[in-house]
Amino acid sequence: MPNTKIAGIGFYVPEQVVTNHDLMRHMDTTDEWIQERSGIVERRYAKRHEETTSTIGAKAARIAIERAGISEEDVDFIIFATLSPDYFFPGCGVLLQRELGITKTEIGALDIRNQCSGFVYGLSVADQFVRSGMYKNVLLVGAEIHSMGLDYSTRGRNVTVLFGDGAGAVVLQPTDEPGKGVLTSKLHSDGSYAEQLAFINPGCHSGYHARKMEQDIDFGYDEDAEFGGLFLSKKMFDDGMIFPNMDGQLVFKTAVTKFPEVIMEVLEDQGLQTSDIDLLVPHQANLRISQFVQRRLKLSDDQVWNNIQRYGNTTAATIPIALCEAWEAGKVKDGDLICLAAFGSGFTWGASLIRW
Ligand code: UT7
Questions:
Q1: How far apart are the CA of 148 and the centre of ligand 1, in A?
Q2: Catalytic one among 283, 286, 306, 339?
Q3: For residue 283, which atom of ligand 1 is closest to its CA?
Q4: Residue to mutate, 31, 33, 37, 114, ligand 1, most ligand atoms under 8 Å from C-beta
């Protein structure tokens, strides 16, 4: 059975740079607070009316496709990971297919809703398809446009300052080179914390989960509506329930435990240790989280790639953007052991080991 290799990689970030000082004009925050708590200096925002999650995904995809030495028509399966899709439905996978001008219908398009761990989950799914021989050119994209769904008032500052827009893509192909390609992936989830980092409305929940958990959570749905009125209510707008919410401290504490655990899990699975890692590309949630993980695993600065300072958290796009930047900088070389690891909303988390 062949392994799965990354045959081409690309990324795209929108041109517009938004600094912490730019955000200070909209909300009560400071450059010092944002840098000290997250490491972020600036992020990119997409051009409204011109760019969408699927179109920026397509920009990254075209680069990955070209670098893989194939054409758009050669792609036989699309996996699109995002939490900020163009539409509620259909998913970004088919929109990407259309944007890339892929007219053949002998192709599948799958959307992945795993937020920060979407790329690692997507890689694991793609790996199964490639190794089984079902597909030969899987296009995996992680892309987000957060800027159109954030609360720019002081109420939303704990979330808004962290996120940015961007896209990354890889083309996955079979390789017969022994010991090369994706060596292993481990995926995890714990739905107990689903609402602690979430974008809940609009949704079809009608308050069900709060009642079931016997928790006094007000999701703002309309109790009195006979029909409808359940997706969006005036209260949801008035109280800002149409924006993401996050228990930052809980996410932080859980992330710094789960990252090292799952990284050790993939290493142990392959009989390897942290000193064998040439480059760890962690999901870019917070520079403090990455630094904590680095210290815990006793990794050198040279073994970890961070770019959150320039792009913020681009969720499903952070790993392919960071991996692509590292590759372009010559930090990912033939034979290197690369570890990808992610943690986020769900909670879901996972890691993959790749021999480049
Ligand atoms: O991909 C996964 C996605 N998310 C994460 O990984 C996030 C994980 N969590 C974090 O990164 C951190 O929890 C944050 C960066 C979000 C927050 O840092 P923190 O050290 O946990 O701060 P905090 O939430 O405990 O808030 C401390 C104070 C509060 O004020 P009071 O109550 O002490 O007066 C907040 O209201 O900081 C205030 N605050 C802000 N102040 C200025 C919250 N956001 C801001 C802000 N600017 N943007």
A1: 21
A2: 283
A3: 1
A4: 37
Distance CA(341)–CA(165), nearest Å, equals 20
Note if 116 is an active site residue.
yes
Q: Which of 116, 137, 146, 286 is catalytic?
A: 116
Domains of the chain with CATH codes:
3-175 (3.40.47.10), 181-192+247-355 (3.40.47.10), 201-238 (no CATH)
For the question of whether the overall pTM of this predicted structure is more than 0.85, the answer is yes
Q: How confident is the model at residue 317 (pLDDT cuts 50, 70, 90)?
A: very high
Rounded to the nearest integer, the mean pLDDT of the chain is 95
Nearest-CA neighbor of 106 among 68, 141, 137? 137
Say what the pLDDT of residue 230 is.
Answer: 61
For residue 275, give Cα distances in angstroms to 12, 79, 270: 31, 32, 13
**pLDDT tens, residue by residue, 299-313:** 999 999 999 999 999
> Tell me, what amino acid is at 239?
D
